[in-house]
Amino acid sequence: MIELLATRWAYAAFILLMVTGIYMMIANANLVKKVIGLNLFQSAVFLFFIASAYVVDGSVPIVHSEGGGGPYVSPLPHVIVLTAIVVGVSLTAVALALIVRIYGEYGTLDEAVLREVSDD
Amino acid sequence: MEYVAYALVIFVILTGIATALLRDVLAAIIVFAAYSLGMALLYTLLLAPDVGLTEAVIGAGVTTILLLLTIVKTVRPGGERTFERLDPRAALACGALAVVFGLTLPDLPAVGDPNSPILSYDAVTGHYLTQSYAETGVENTVTAVLAAYRGFDTFGEATVVFAAGVAVLVVLRREVFT
Prior knowledge:
The structure holds two protein chains of two kinds.
Chain A (H helix, E strand, L loop, with lengths): L1 H6 L1 H19 L3 H23 L21 H32 L4 H9 L1
Helix pairs in contact in A: 2-3, 3-4
Chain B lengths: L1 H20 L3 H21 L3 H25 L14 H16 L19 H14 L4 H9 L1 H21 L7
Helix pairs in contact in B: 1-2, 2-3, 5-6, 6-7
């Protein structure tokens, strides 16, 4: 068990942080905290990608003109994570703008109160 | 390297859980910014400096500013209790999910294992690593893939950012289309 955690620590951290993010999205009543949970979930998945690209005693994939060197970490997960971070912040911006509008309409950000108000 | 990584992992897990449990939204945002910074350091330690920089600027910077602007414009609940009440049903569901994912843990390759399938450097990754300087003139392979080989992806990403900007303006009624 300890050996498993020692060698696969990044994946274990990914699982813990991912379920923390999902828990925030389910259980926290405040809409802003749900969005924070979504961001937490996201960066946990990024950790999974980055950890899977890592290699012990490797180097950053900056290859000089004469070539050689290495072993390098895999550059492809880095690229997809860079794209995903920017898409994630766009998503967060739209979600928060919707939250500002919801507050303008209903005067609350509490999920249970919102459900009551919208049922009336 | 290992002990720094373990310390950082414990830091991000603690700040992540604190973010979930703190009831005051401002406190949660501040702790979440600390979490993002720890995550950026962790990415850098795992030899992804480009991702670390982006996470530090966008995760710890832009996202925090957006969240702070939101609570300035809306409301900041809190007061009577420091921590949220634990929702037992949600905690049970999330615990079950963690167990299901945890069962896959022994089958994953160890972190940094040179024999893991993703590091086998097949035709695609190997080609990028050996040919990117000759073909694009960029030494950083991540930049070469992002801006040259998969420039179309990055163009799509710019489209997403533009669409999000338009959506924010429309939702906040700053712009009226007639």
